[in-house]
Amino acid sequence: MNPFRADTPNDKTPEPATIVIFGASGDLTKRKLIPAIYNLLIGRHLSRVAIVGTSRTVMSDDDFRESSLDGINKYSRQRPVDERVWSTLSRSIHYHPGAFDDPAAFVRLRERLEVIEKQHHLPANRLFYLSTPPSAFAPIIRNLGAAGLVRPGENPFARVIVEKPFGTDLASAIDLNRDVHEVLKESQIFRIDHYLGKETVQNLLVFRFANGIFEPLWNNKYVDHVQITGAETLGVERRGAYFDHAGILRDMVQNHLFQVLCLAALEPPGSFKANAVRDEKLKVLEALRPIEPEQLEERVIRAQYLSGSVLGAQVPGYREEEGVGKESQTETFVALKLFIDNWRWGGVPFYLRSAKRMPKRVTEVAIHFKNVPHRLFAGADGGPNVLAIRIQPDEGITMSIGSKVPGQALEIAPVTMEFRYASSFGVEAPEAYERLLLDALAGDGTLFTRGDEVEASWRFITPIHQAWLSGKGKMHGYEAGSWGPDASTQLLGKDGRAWRRP
Ligand code: BG6
Predict the structure, then answer these.
(1) Of 19, 27, 234, nearest in space to 129 by CA
(2) Which residue of 143, 213, 338, 451 shows the fewest CB atoms closer than 10 Å?
(3) CB neighbours (10 Å) of residue 25?
């Protein structure tokens, strides 16, 4: 039996529950999780909840409440703090110190949860959020199981959210999946990829499957190639030590960009149920043509940023960043030429690039359509039609088309049709973590990655990373604030194409 298949309900009304956050003294809890819960309460999306923070750090309930309020004050989407909502929330916030590798601490946690649930009249529904270093995932899940905290069954439910990264290569992802499945059913585990929580990423599916006019064009008959860009102006900030072990291929492409790729390329699922969507994503990942070590130079470009200027500020080179080795061979830029070997996409290149220290922050999918079969207007050309789905920032969709320039001459120029979320809807989109927490509480795994998907993406990524480790694949340099090395321009240039300047 495939352990990954298990259907989950698609009902967004969560039952009352307790959210237990492991790694509660960390940055993510303060910046994202507590503000997300607060915003869900403001929007009246949650029924009753209690929050129990836990980590090694010794602090009191009041200390944790204070740090939570600080997080809301600084990072909440909706501010200033609504006193009434905060006073309800603060009463349901608790803290319980304990070590991840101490089985006795989990027995004490269970006893504490029983007391808290009684106090708040809550059923024993529990959502465990693992916001810890990845090395703690397996021990925590094992200890949760041993303490009887995660029995199977939906009533009451016990679910576990795991932060990224889920493994660092194929072997570690398989090991982690095995450890997880020793204790949990696949339907109890929610692997986070916060890109799936972004409204605009979800809109990729709506755009494709709620409109009749695009899908007939969405294939190798009409599409020349696809470009997916995930560019950041930021460098490695204070995460140099982490990043130097990861690199952009594993930090961004294996998860976020591949999820975006899957949603852009998948076949229409039969329903919007978790496994129907995830089955189709898996097929895309499995259809990716592997990159053999001898093809590395022609299909993958890696590079590191050198010093330069980004958004008007002078910034150091990657190897001068804190926590980064002076001889580091970790890439901060990667561009790949991919093929999805199936009926729909046969022969259509998918060019992906992701990097730190680019001139602009932009995540987008751009579908470049084929040129007209016959040029009627000799010499005059509006350029190919490009449909660009902007995931962030300036969320929206643009379509470039050729149009006649007013005047007596037959001159054609590209113009754009534009849809912008901000002007069309005028409301702020919820944060990714709000959506993901709500879905996990409701038991809906559609926007979480399934174990087999994670393994499939590592199966593709790991050989590239290993080839780099063995010294294959030139490391290029690029000036911070540029769009990457010349080799990246040539990756498309030799195919007669060019990267978009978003
Ligand atoms: C994280 C990566 O998963 O995603 C970071 O570890 C990256 O390196 C971040 O900066 C990008 O997320 P977003 O939502 O800002 O595009």
Answers:
(1) 19
(2) 213
(3) 20
Ligand 1 pocket: which residues have CB below 6 Å? 164, 232, 251
Q: Which domains does the chain have, with CATH numbers?
A: 9-163 (3.40.50.720), 196-428+450-493 (3.30.360.10)
Give the residue ranges of DSSP H helices in 338-431: 421-425
CA 480, chain centre distance (Å): 24
pTM: 0.95
Distance (Å, whole) CA 321 – CA 319: 6
Q: Where are the beta strands (DSSP E) in 393-460?
A: 396-404, 412-420
Q: For residue 393, how far is its CA from the centre of ligand 1 (angstroms)?
A: 13
412-420 vs 189-191, strand pairing mode: unpaired
Contact between residue 215 and residue 488 where contact means Cβ atoms under 8 Å apart: no
Atom of ligand 1 nearest to the CA of 232: 10
Q: Is 280 exposed, middle or buried (0-12, 13-18, 19+ CB in 10 A)?
A: middle
pLDDT (average), residues 188-215:
94
- Ligand 1, residues 252, 332, 435: which to mutate, most atoms within 8 A of Cβ? 252
pLDDT digits (tens, 9 = 90+) for 410-440: 889 999 999 998 889 888 888 999 999 999 9
| Whether residue 256 lies in the annotated active site | yes
The three-class DSSP label of residue 143 is helix
Q: How far is the CA of 255 from the centre of ligand 1 (A)?
A: 10
Q: What is the pLDDT of residues 25-68, one digit of tens each?
A: 999 999 999 999 999 999 999 989 999 999 999 999 999 999 99
CA distance to 245, 287, 453, per residue, from 466 (Å): 13, 21, 20
